[in-house]
Amino acid sequence: MMDFPQSQMIAVNGVELEVFTAGNGKPIVLCHGWPEHAFSWRHQIQPLVDAGYHVIVPNQRGYGRSTKPDDVTDYAIEHLTGDLIALLDHFGYDDACFVGHDWGAIIVWNLAMMHRERVSRIINLSVPFMERGNTEWIGFWEKMLGPDFYMVHFNRQPGVADEVFATNTKQFLGNMYRTNQWQHPAPDLGPGMNMINMAQDPAFADGVPGDPMMSDAEMQVFLDAFALSGFTGGINWYRNLTRNWETMGAFEQHIYQPTLAIFGDYDMVPKSKTLAERVSTLEVVELPCGHWIQQELPEETNAAMLEWLDRNYAA
Questions:
Q1: Cys-Cys link to 105, which of 22, 100, 166, 308 (CB 3.0-4.6 A)?
Q2: 162 among known catalytic residues
Q3: 0.85 cut: is pTM over it?
Q4: Confidence (pLDDT) at 2
């Protein structure tokens, strides 16, 4: 398996983060999503180092060996973004290029609005800018998608999914981290909350349709990390979506930093029809993959990132 940097524990913003760093040069901070880990960026670190960047990859609060506060509100957006700002301060940087995937992208979009002067460039994967709208998100999704939509379930039935995922981690992650599932008929996951069924139904013990996205050795890194951290910290990010909706009302809903957005053609996350209206300087790359873009198509992702960085944030 590839070399992955050794971690260091860094005290920031009232917590300790497990941070992996490599290289020298302009800073690039890689922000993972859910349910993931800094190791999700394993294919990107060395190419970015070789291109002349200082690559900083935190396990954000709630993940890996990083602090897992007990209070749900400690995972609100001002704390998640505050950790990243404190990380810049730790390394002595005024600003950086931030790269986010999934929830990491949500954090980076918000970081760019809340701390505009600290974010010089953005590369976001999978999740587009979230339109704030007139109604807080959880109530809106509950009305539109019902009580078993996973983000609604996380909020309305706290602790239930956390326990199922922790008890069935191998089956859960094995069924989450799939690719090529769009080449098969969608499985019938039955009534109730899809992710819980996927995690514990014996019918899916050998995997949902599609192919494993990583080797057994790579999967073990994630299994070991969640055995240590559990799932509650990461899921608590979702339990702050209503609070975040209120917080972000104080900020202009616009991105001024030059931005590269990378989307997967088969990602289940909906694309945005209004992204270009929200982002002043936007380029979009679409790749023939699913949700786990930088792990499914690492070479294509790296090529898109490096080409854009060369024009917009040259080392």
A1: 100
A2: no
A3: yes
A4: 63
